[in-house]
Each structure stands twice: as C-alpha cells, then as structure tokens.
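Please check this chain.
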Amino acid sequence: MPKSSRELTKISRTVKRYATCVIRNYGIGYSEYECLHFIRHNPGASQESLREWMMVDKAAVSRMVNNLEKKGYIVRKVNEQDRRANALFVTEPDTEIHASAASAEVHFYDWLMADIDDSELEIFRQVLHTIYLKSKDAGKNGFRFVPPLEAANLSQSEIIVAKEDPE
C-alpha cells in the first residue's frame, strides 16, 4: 500500500479553489495568480522563463501577460541584456492581491485545523515541514533524485522537469 493516499494534493486543490474565490475579486484567475507569483519571486524574468516554469505554450503566457499588464498588475520593460526580450515586474497592486490570497489560505487552513489538539497539530507541522523541505530540495535539483515512475512505465528522462517553485 502506498504511504500517501494523496490527501495533501486534495487539500491543496481545495485551498486553491478557496483562494481563487478571493482573487477573482481582482479580475484574475488562478493561472494568472501563479504568473504573478513567479514574477514576484523572479523580478525581471522573461516571458520564456515564465513559460518554462508554468509549462504552457507561448500563446498562453502571452495572453496572461497581456491581461495582467492591461489590469495594471505587471509592467514589461526592455531587457537590458537582450533588447529583443521583455523583463517582467509586478506593480504595487500585486501586493494587495498577494496579501488577500495569503490571508485566505491562512484562514482556510486555520479553519481546517481548528478542532485538532495542539500536541497533535505540532507533530503534524513537524512532519509536514520535513516533507516540505524534501519537496523543495527535489524541485531545486530538477527532480533528478526522485526514483523513476515504474508504475507509469516512464523513465526519469521522460519526465518534463519543471523549474523550481518559488516560495
């Protein structure tokens, strides 16, 4: 029997849906929020690096960047190293979006854990932190230390490696 029954994935998906209810007030969806997240943690990033991190095609990134720029959440500046490329930066209104989404997530997690005994919650947090650190390290290293997906008949070289997820 697998050690995980995917509860973390399912909880994360539910929290994303809850946070999306909040960020919709700013006229954006979750993919655009993820776009802002990447740019916030990588000021001056190119659309190509954003595309690689999000694992979407150029047209999808172009649409998101155009929409976010029209709404005033990002600005494009000419990249000084490569004048053909644009450098992306978040604007001041992104601070409010980020704070609102983070507050929504904290509120939802607090609600989920309200009925859990403090001693059990502390053990849970310690275990979760250990899992988080291992996950973060795997992402930083391009997932090359994660064993092959035997069940799916995929080798490690067949997995499309995502860029590290900024915090």
Observations:
- The chain has two domains: 1-113, 116-167.
- Residues 116-167 form one domain.
- The two ends are 31 Å apart (CA to CA).
